[in-house]
Amino acid sequence: MENERNDLWKSVLADIEIEVSKGIFITIFKPTVLLSLEENVATIAAPSSMIIDLLKRRFYQMIKKSLDKATGKDNEVVFVPKTVLTIIKDEKVGPLFEKVEKKSFKLPRVREEYVFENLAVSSSNQLAYVSATTVAKKIGKAYNPLFIYGTVGVGKTHLMQAIANEVFKNDSSKKILYLTSEEFTNEVVEAIKTNVTGSMKRRFRNLDLLIIDDVQFVAGKEKVQEELFHTFNILVDKGSQIVLSSDKPPNEMKKVEKRLLSRFSGGLTVDIEPPDFELRTAILLIKAKKYDFELPIEAAKKIAEKD
Prior knowledge:
This protein is α/β, with parallel strands linked by helices. The chain has helices spanning 2-19, 22-29, 49-58, 60-71, 126-137, 156-170, 181-193, 197-205, 222-237, 258-264, 277-290, 297-305, and strands at 33-38, 41-46, 76-81, 146-149, 176-180, 209-213, 241-246, 268-271.
């Protein structure tokens, strides 16, 4: 009976997914679940009162139409606030409200909360999101390197650290290093200064996954670029994964050696555009939920309308 109910709701959601944007579907619909369907009354659970409010006012008729079509009956739809995760234990219910497994150990300098499951996705970052999740599943085999660029505050760091957390979650034996280009520079300079370049090279070149944030700051630093170039070649040759971020694409970077720029462009280069209205709204709802703040959906939309 439960399987039939879940299959029915999947059918309804598949119908709705065609009618709404990617951001709306992921944020609003995917975390829902059909709790019961008795005497033509469908009870739908949603993660928060904010989501319920939006479903009632903007999408009630759409849900009813899809449900009536799937059942062949005239149904009434009611919503209840209930944590979906307590009901569906084996299914993923969406990137915004999925339970994140806590570990007693973590990666250095990588924030545990930066995971794919709580990253808001819309058309402005969808390609980067899909590329990052693909890389996390197949490190060293798809899009190597993955080069992500965009202005400040669009979520590059979240996405990069989500890759690190996902790889680590799936295989904690993987050697993973996340650092900024400034930290990479400091390590290279210190190694040269103290004559321990051998240990520094072993540290960087024995990794399964190397992630460097804000790589544009290696511009004009010849020794750092040389070390990064050789590290890059060795890691790629041995099947390790490299992920880089910058505020601009490789072809717009100045004072960086052509051979290094060629390596940067050798995999997949994706940009993250400034968040659109839907993504800004979703981000506001996520932040409100994180801090247990009841933010009405209309208030979030009003704030998101401001550039």
